[in-house]
Each structure stands twice: as C-alpha cells, then as structure tokens.
C-alpha cells in the first residue's frame, strides 16, 4: 500500500461529495465538465512530466536534506543584508501563525483591524526613524524602492523641468551595486538617463530632476550630505536617500538634513536573510507628496458611530483602478514582513533599539581599533557598522579569504583589493574573537584576543549623532515582556479574518490552502541564515531547489526557462515586457511600442506596460465578456507596424476560457508582436493546458496564488516569469552573482528565495496528477457556486457552453435597482456571517467576483451559499418595504460587538437578526470590533502615523 497522498489533504472535495456536485451541474463526470469549459484545441495531449508525488513525511525528509547542504557561515558581507535575531514571541505567534500569514490585503477594513494596526505601527517606525512625516506600509525591496523613488521624483518635476525635458537622475557612485543595476533597468525603460558620480563633485549647474545617495554608503562611510542637499534643492533637484533603518537609531535622520524621500530595507528588524528575501522595503516622504507616493498607506478614520478605525487610505492610487494612469504598478507589498518588523520595534521599544544599535556600532569600533594595531588600515573616516580595510602590502586578499573560510566566515571582497566587514546584531564576543583571529593569522601575529564583554564605544562625531527622540507612543513602550507582547499580538490577531476562520472567496486572488508541511521548512537555519551573495559552494541546497523549481515551472507552463527574480506579480508583468522589449531590440524591432490589452485583462497590466515604456491600447470586450474580435482585428491592423505585444489574462478576469485565444495569438505573431500571458489565473490551467500550448511567448506566475505561497495580508508575493526559447537570453541578470546585470529587476538574484521552498513543496507533494486534479476541482467548485447562486443573483459572464472557469462574477446590479442595496452592502453584510467579501466591483462595477479554489470543502461551499442566499432574502425584505432603506441589516452592516452588547438597540430589526443570521454563525461567531468605516473621512483627514494622533 502507498503512503497517504498529500493531494487528499490539499483538495477539499471528498470523493463522496462528487455525485452531489455533478448532479447539481447536470454532468456525469468532472472530465465532462472540463470538456464543456476549456476549448479542446488548447488541451494538453499528455500529462505533465514532473517528479513523482511525495508524501508529507517523504518531503519533510527531502527538504531537510536540501536545507542541510547549505553551509551556514557567519556573514559579514553586508550590502543590505545582515544576520538578525527574530524574537521567539514574534516568530511563534506571527511568522508561524496562519491567522497572520493567510489573511488577505486589507481592502475590507472592518475585518482587518489587527493587521492594519501592525502596519500603522510599521509606518510610525519608518516615519520617526527617517524624520519624514509620511511613510507607506512597505514596498518590495531596497533596489525596487530606489526605482520607485526615482520615478516619483520624475513625476514631481516642475513645469519648467517638464518643458525643458529634464530627464537625468544623479546617482552617487557609492550606492549598492544591485540598487544601481535595478535603477539602470527601470530608468532605461522610462527614457530616464542616469549619471553616476561623486556627490562631492555634484554640479548644480547641470539639470537633474533627482538624486539618490546611500546613508551610510556602500563602503560603510557615514557621509555628511547637508551641503549637497542644499545645492541640489537650489537647482530644483529632489533628493532620495537609501538609508539603513537600524543606523537611523543613532544617526541624524535624513528628514532632518533635508531629504525629500528616504527608503531602504527593514530586514535587520528581525527578518532572516533568507538568501535575499522576503523582507519589507520602507519608503517615507514629505506630506505634500502623499498623492505621488507609491504603494499603500494605512490611515486612521472613523466608523459609522464615530469610533476610531483604521483603513487603507487614498486607495484610488491603486494601480488596478487607475490602470495606465497609475503612479506605479506595485501590487503586492511585503505586509507579513512589515508586520514582523513592526512587532520587533514594539517588543524592543526605543531603548531596546538604541541598545542594539549602540552594540553594533561599539563592536565595529572595537574591531576597527584591534585591526589597526595589526596593521590594517581602516578607510572609513566614520562608520556605523561597516569597515573597509586596506591590506598591508605583504597580505593578499585571497590569503585572508582562505583563513576566513577555514573559520566559516564570509567577508566582503572588493574588486579593488580591500576587504569589507559589516557587524550585525548577532555578533557576540566569540564571533569577534574568531573574526580578529583571522586577521591576526594573516598578519603573522600571535596575539590572543580574550573578549568576555563588549564595552560601549562611540566613534561617530557628535554632529552625526541623532538628538531627536523617536517611538514615544505608548504602543512602543508597553509590551517588552514576552507575556505582554504575546497578549498584544493575540489582541490584534482576534480582529482579523483569515483562512483560519473561513473561506476567502476573492476572485482573481486564489486564496487556497497554505499547507503547514509546505511552510515548516522555512524555519530551517539552512534556509534562513544564508546571505544572497554567499559563495556558490555554500549554497548547494538552495541551488538544487531553485534549479529544479525553475525546471518544473517551465514544464508546467510549456516554456523553455524560468527566472525567479521578480518578487511580485506586478514585477513579473514588468519583467516579461522587459524581456520582450530586449528581444525586439535584438532583431531590430525596438521601435515597436504598442501593447494591446483587453478590457478583461488583469488590472495591473496597463500600469506595467507604461512602466516598461510601452503605450497600452485597450481592446473592447463584447456583451458576453469575450475579447471583441472585430475590435481586436481592427486594432491589430491599425497598429501592425508598431505592435510590440498583446497582454492577455487567460482565462480572462471575466472568468471565461475564450475559444478564440489561439487565433488571437496567431494574429499577433503574424503582425510581428509577442504574446504576454498574465498568469494570475493559472490555477485554471495547470495540468490541463498551458501558455506555451496556447501560443504565448512569456507568462508570469503568481506563486502566492496558484502555487500556495501565503498572501500574508498583502505579501510576500513572488512573480517569476517563464519564457519561450527565443527569449531565454534576455532573462534578468545580476551584478554581483550573475555574469551580467542586464535586465536586473530585484535586489537579490533569486528575488524572495526564502519562500520558494513553499512552492517547491507544493509541486513535489502534489505531483502531476495532484496538480491536474486541483485545477479540475477549482473549476468544479466555481461552477457549483455559479449554479447554486444563479437563481438568486445571476452570473454576469459564461463561456460558450454556459460554464465559468475557476471564478465567476455575481450580478448585483438588478438587486440594487429594486432595493437600493449595493454590492458594498452585500460585502459588509457577509462579515456578520463570518465571511470575507468576494472581490468588490472588479472587473465589472456593481458586481462581486468569487473564486472558491480547490481547497474548500463542500460543507464550506454550502455555508457560503447559505449566507449569500440569506442575504438575498434580506435584500428582498428591503425591496418589499419590510425594513426601510435607511435602517436594515445590510445598510448598517457590519454590526460590531460593542453595538451588539450595548444596553440600547436603535434598529427596527432584532439583535439576533443582526448578529446571528444563521444557526452556524452562533456556533463560531467572528466579532468585528468596528462598524462600517468612513472612507471619505479618512482621505479628507489623513492621519498615517501614531505620532500624528
């Protein structure tokens, strides 16, 4: 007998449920349903060629072996990544807690108050440490945040600068090389010239729209940028600063010496290095630039009864709403990691952070003094944590490297011969002893370093040291024991709905099971404690997993190769278009700039096209939700000579497998363009069809959707791209790890490598058969819901045979016309039933888009149906006048706990109808703690930091 298959745990539908579901749909088998749903001409002819499925026990043993082959060295490489200590109370109660890692982006504020508070804390930390009044709740990584800063400064040009076409960005030469590489990629696509130079030689007479400097710089030196900033501002040039967040605990913050933007990584606030990611980037700016800042902002508003409530503010800036007019294509943030970083700051508080930062600096100062006595010249005139050493003439870099590796130590080796040492939070007396012993042996010294304690030693100049206070709010001064911290985390946890509570039926978001067996290996030190620039012979396990994962994803998509570097779905879109642009340029067709995008495509597509330097042109959809073939043919012909690409989401965001997809791909190719397939809906393709078979040239994959990486409340996300053979030469490079920096799109060579083990585990345990079955069950579940809800609501779009794909759009506009109840009211009322709302008014205004995924059971699907049908009954009650339009359970939803238990009840309907609308709700009630949030108030009165309260 075989061991139990993992697929039986991942897929929610039991064999005994199938008869009921198939009978409801009027088909005899799941395969008959698939035949009615997916066009025959794009179906795969043979099963996927993947390794045999492993049991959970077999996978645990295999991934443990892989992790153990990575060599854990003490890393002093720095360059944006540092070893750190994740407090156990945070690791156990947040990182390993499904309530935190399976929640969705907090668009529905009333059931997201816990995450929103944690992210507001993150914004407060960033704002106060950078000295700038407004921060967002995270970006992807430091390098992409630099590109966002450059794009923002470009967008803020004065009228005269726009008139005179000022399009040059100044970048100081001592910026991290990976940041410069990403800047070159992103600015090159936007037509922005980069001039790299010494900030000390900055020529104010030259026309720059913006400048970027590093603080401390790539060498570790703490520069005084005050005069530079004054000169830049006098010439109309804005200044962005890449800052080390931990260093700002000690150093004068950029906002106090005139910076317009500060950005960087919060990785060293308790987030493991994870071979490069994920970790949350931070971004702060002046208040007057709030409508130009990329990413998301958490703001404080009021609920319907005047109680303070948190929400995502200024949401109209989101790229899927503004499309080609968006300021950025940012979609996924790094919310889970930002949450962890914020709890790190809460747990340590301002005094704890000062102790950590002082200790790091003191150790660096001690090491500098000891190395000076050994004959090594320290080149940084002032530093926070990083030394740059010039070696004596009789000592070679290679000899030091050999001695260091004998002691399992990694140093930074400059091409010009110097050695870099970056001290971090984990550097204890023993590690200092081992580090100094390396250099003593290299120098031929017999000195023995007896270090029992590390004395405090400050070598920074007085004018470089911070004098302003930070984190004075009680939140950062109340939870320093583990007991209090645990209770604070749990208090926030109870305010959020996640997959730990109920189905999250968001269309286009694929909120499936994130299995514990997939996530447990992330705790292995062999995955956590690896620097992304560690030598190749130390990362055999990561390389084995990465190469196999790349191969498996290529097989699944029908393509030749994969790049795992893009660290979000939107970043994957940009990268795919970048690869197309590079290919077209290589064949002398680089002037092609038009990208055709159906109205039914994923919302980020137009913004990504603009970011990649293309001109998006919308193709209409017909009354049935398909691409309007007449309009498509017309636009292909109109733009034939300029056509670069066609971006299509398949199945479409309307939930349809369009039968003309191959014809469309053929027409684009015949006109000289490339086909980009958005992989947001890949959960309806895996094992049954794929982009390569359909006719695409490149696709991105949302590993945080189809391939089981958790959403984490808005990130981490991973958006690798898979490409056909002719596009392989143009996949992203990296300036430090790969031989080329061409098309670098992320700070780390493999993006958020730390979470790749989740997708690797999902594929290895599901196998080809399990993945294919998951796709079929996702389609079955969607069609079951469509059939059950059709009579009450109606389905907006269906395929040619009357079937939906893996998601469906529920019609709500007719109900509004007879009752005044909107789709928003339905979404809020679902919270009273313990459910997260489906996708609201996207892609069709006035509707709800539902995607049940394959992980949900028939019992949960039926509970959701019962809730939706009961809500329909409640709407009919309003339409009949049984309850007024001004006072009914829908318009007043959700009903917070404080209202339900109040002595006074002001509504015409009873409390029981409000809070226990169905029997199952009473058995497992999720209590919201705020009433409906006033979005408009929050935007008019933006408060995005605890320090502003």
From TrEMBL:
InterPro entries noted in UniProt: GcvP, GDC-P_C, GDC-P_N, GDC_P, PyrdxlP-dep_Trfase, PyrdxlP-dep_Trfase_major, PyrdxlP-dep_Trfase_small
Domain Glycine cleavage system P-protein N-terminal, residue spans: 9-439, 453-736
Needed cofactors: pyridoxal 5'-phosphate
Keyword Zinc: no
Reactions mediated catalytically: N(6)-[(R)-lipoyl]-L-lysyl-[glycine-cleavage complex H protein] + glycine + H(+) = N(6)-[(R)-S(8)-aminomethyldihydrolipoyl]-L-lysyl-[glycine-cleavage complex H protein] + CO2
Stored CDD domains: GDC-P
Glycine dehydrogenase C-terminal domain boundaries: 774-895
Example of a GO biological process term: glycine decarboxylation via glycine cleavage system
Keyword Oxidoreductase annotated: yes
Example GO molecular function: glycine binding
E.C. number(s) listed in UniProt: 1.4.4.2
A GO cellular component entry from the record: glycine cleavage complex
This protein's UniProt keywords: Oxidoreductase, Pyridoxal phosphate
NCBIfam families per UniProt: gcvP, PRK04366.1
Similarity-based family: Belongs to the GcvP family.
Entry-linked PANTHER family: GLYCINE DEHYDROGENASE (DECARBOXYLATING), MITOCHONDRIAL (PTHR11773:SF1), GLYCINE DEHYDROGENASE, DECARBOXYLATING (PTHR11773)
Subunit structure: The glycine cleavage system is composed of four proteins: P, T, L and H.
Function, in words: The glycine cleavage system catalyzes the degradation of glycine. The P protein binds the alpha-amino group of glycine through its pyridoxal phosphate cofactor; CO(2) is released and the remaining methylamine moiety is then transferred to the lipoamide cofactor of the H protein.
Name of the protein described by the UniProt record: Glycine dehydrogenase (decarboxylating)
Organism of provenance: Petrimonas mucosa
